[in-house]
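From the shared-data thread, chain only:
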Amino acid sequence: MHTAEEVEAVTAALAAFAPCPRPWKVIGSERTADAVQERLSEWATPSSNGNTFLYWISHGESDGEDMALLAHAGSPHPLIHSGISPDDFLRYLTARQNHPDAEGTWAIVVIDACKSGRFVELLSARAFLKSNGPRNFLLVSTSEDGAANLGVFRHALETVLGTTFAADSTIDLRALGDELQRNLRGCPVVPHTKMGRALLHRIVPAAAGAVTTTLDVLAEIQAVIDQLPPDEQRHFIPKATGAELGELAWYFEGREEERDTILRWLDTGADGMLVVTGAAGSGKSALLGHILLHTRPKLRSILLRTGHLQPLPSGVPCPSDPFDAVIHLSGATPQELIARLALAAQLREIPRDLLLNEQIEWLLDGLAQRALPFGVLLDALDEAHAPLVIADQIVRRLAEVPGTRVVIGTRRSTKEGPDLPPQVNRDLLDALDMNGADSDLAKSVVSVNRDSLAMVRYVRRKLETAEKLDRLVASSQQIAMAASELGDSGREFLYARLAVHEVIHESDLLDDLTSLRNSSHRQLFARAAQRLSTRNPAFRPLLHALALAQGRGLPLRDGIWATVAAVVAPMGATINDEVIHDLTADAAPYLMLDAEAGQTVYRLAHRTFIEHFNSTGEKHEHLHQQITEALTVDGDFRLPKAELNPYVIYHLPAHAAQGQLPAWEYLAQHTRVLDRLDSTSITSQVMTHAFGRITLPPAIAGAVASQHMAVTNSQGDRRGLREVATAQTTGSFDRSHGEPDDTLPTWSVTWARLNTNPLHLTLRGHTRGVRAVVAFFMPDGRTLLAAGGDDGAVRIWDPLTGTAFGEPLRGHIGGVFAVVAFPAPAPDGRTLLATGGNDGMVRIWDPVTGAEVGEPLRGHTRGVRGVVAFPAPAPDGRTLLATGGNDGMVRIWDPVT
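Structure, as tokens:
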């Protein structure tokens, strides 16, 4: 590629950040020393405040020591003098960064030349030594001591900006440098800035996809989107577009009746709740995102003006900004939802010591006292943490507050999913108390049912756009026929989206669509996986790696995705970030872009795709063992100069647990990594998969036994605490795995001989003696422990993590001597706790919310020492309580009445 074309390609890679190119005014043959000096002088004296990206392409030379030069048009060959030296360049860079109009800005300098690595190293060293030297810049080389290949840097830049940081609206210059260096295979990339000081701000989307709008209009649209909260940007807007990963396009079709119903409800209802529900893949989120487009005035205006949104029919209202809180509930806990609602309502900060039920009451009271109405848009209730609790205890009650309107998207049941048969269960709608809601204006249900005509239009638009962009060779008759067959297939929108993608990549399918019409979602994915593997053998292991991912997905940063994929890749397959970049474009409908722990991650879009790999018969224990080894080795190599990637910190224990004993043994041999992992994650995985099943390696046993101290002490104490706990639980002490890391521990153990105790998990919280313990089940299937003590508190723990569940239940005066769990009367389904105390009271609690249920049961004249639950004689079916006290009485109670 010619250098001018390469410059244009690099500029295009930076399009997401709205660069303003400053091209040469002279032709290449006239770019002599004087011309170069003049151009650098112009660069060093900016006419306005702004960041700068300098891209230098030329020949370079170095002796590997103190001589490094960059050529200009008048330089001799071989290049031994009359070139641009690091000192020459440093003068201009210093002048630029010290210029008053460059205050607070950053500079990126890319030297794309032969032996540019040594030039960058010398330039960096001289900048460090210069007292008034430049600051806040990044130096990038594209070769070490050999020739530079034009295009290598561009590919690295495209991958890092367009894939590694795809979900990041801002990119730290140091993080950018780390990823460029990794993609440039270790070529010197040197940051001269502090973390958080220099940020690249995304202005327009990295890939415009099918959009034919001019760049300035794209920038205008994105500028408006950038003002929206993260959930609106990352979830609702992409869902509304109907586009693929990396596109900013608008394919939304149909749902006019449902849209108009929701808009009228928003326009006329003062309070209440409207539920948007439907089968998995029916387009609930897309509809809610479409509603949001219409109700955000600035976004609506520009989309209408550019033709990406059609005007509403006459008579259909379009309220402006009816939502004060717009929240994607996937993975959200009840406490997180309350905190976000409180923030949106501009209430004061929630007191930290409140129980969940007290937080709920605090929120509802605060909203009731507001003089202004409060609108809430929620989506993906079925994907929340404890969705039934959120539905029953928060959302249902929220909608009852005068002046509060709630629109929420959810499946009808927690049991629904793609390719699963229809469910009779309606537990989510029941928890929202939506039975008979259609007859009440304050409570409405909008069912998103199949819309064949809209699907036909959607398929036609997708195929027509692909044909216009030369991605598909098809006649208008073929497109019309495919739209009719696929759109009128009796499936949901998700099916149409996946089927269309296969047609675009295999135009021969247009001649016979039978195989697609007969395919399930899972079968469509299997077809795509085979097609992708044919194109590039690395694509399948990359997808397989996502099926093995833990948490919300795999990041590209620090090579995590590539490292996991290498475990399942065939011999000879090339796995790198550039290949991943290509995969994200080719497999867009099957991938989800997300963020976790402050970094962009990718995962398979639906569990049915994960099941494709789970059914292959491969031994996943062996794969997770290899993943554990690969991530551990990589992490150990990075330490102590760099921190572990957050994915390793929080999810390596999950891979070790599924890799079973060999994986735990391998991790135990690398204590430098082990001591930096999240202690709660280690404990949770051990208690779930290993405790009582295998003999844990001593270091792992010590990590679990010291968890209750590790979570409250500094990172530097982790090794010493683990070593003491190892000696206490195993009777052995082994220092064979390396000396203490001076960058982490403040102390460690040299010698230990202690009385041993069996491995156990310590649940710390009670300040005095514990009198009673009971296990009970949560609605989501978890087992919790409740304990009452002499300190008058009932504390609840998750025994798999060793962490407290909620705040202590307080109400008894004096000690709590008895605790029992029993089911609430049907159809409630909750588990309740009954406690007996030294005050003679029997109290009933909801362990989820921490609320006391009803009034205390009074009758005993002295302390209650025992409580037991038992079923009343048939056919009654109620649960009764029997209590025994120091007063010599046994009393029987109906805990409800």
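The chain has six domains: 3-201, 215-448, 452-506, 520-618, 625-762, 770-893.
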